Amino acid sequence: MENVILIVHLLLALALIGVVLLQRSEGGGLGMGGGGAMSQRAAATALGKITWGLAAAFIITSITLTVLAASDASGVSVMDRLSGSAPATETEGSAPAPLDTDGLLPPPSGGNDAGADAPMVPSAD
């Protein structure tokens, strides 16, 4: 059901783009052509009526898809879906688990070797 509505939604979007591109321009950009929708009522052409119909159908399918997606969500977080299971909740007063840094940090060096990457420490002489 959801796939059918999604396909209809995509077809409506493509049809709406096509119909809007077929319409005649009113002149200057953003309605500054001296007339048009700002000064008088534009004539309701067939393409104008088709545009309104397609726009209404597009909005209805958008709302329908939103409602269907919300009903499928059932209170589960997106992060829960990605990890495969819900994360364990920490109880009050318990310390968080320590991070496993094995392999992320270089091993500590025993002293200031000549070839080591350790910072130089001045002697206390």
What does the model show?
- The protein is mainly α and 125 residues long.
- The chain has a domain of 50 residues.
- It is 44% helix and 0% strand.
- It contains three helices and no strands.
- The radius of gyration is 32 Å and the shape is elongated.
- The protein starts with a helix and ends in a 42-residue tail after the last helix.
- The mean pLDDT is 75.
Briefly say what this structure is.
This protein has 125 residues and is an all-alpha fold.
Give the helices and strands, then pairings.
Elements: H1 2-22, H2 46-73, H3 78-83
Helix pairs in contact: 1-2
Pfam family, one: SecG
Organism: Salipiger mangrovisoli
Membrane topology: Multi-pass membrane protein
Radius of gyration over alpha carbons?
32 Å
- The chain-level mean pLDDT equals 75
Backbone structural class:
mainly alpha
β-strand percent reads under 5%
What is the string of SSEs from the N terminus onward?
HHH
Distance between the termini: 82 Å
List the total number of helices: 3
- What shape does the CA trace take? elongated
**For the report, how would you describe the main beta sheet?**
none
The total strand number stands at 0
* Uncertain residue ranges: none
Helix content: 40-55%
Pfam families: SecG
InterPro entries: SecG
Region (Disordered): 80-125
Transmembrane segments: 51-71
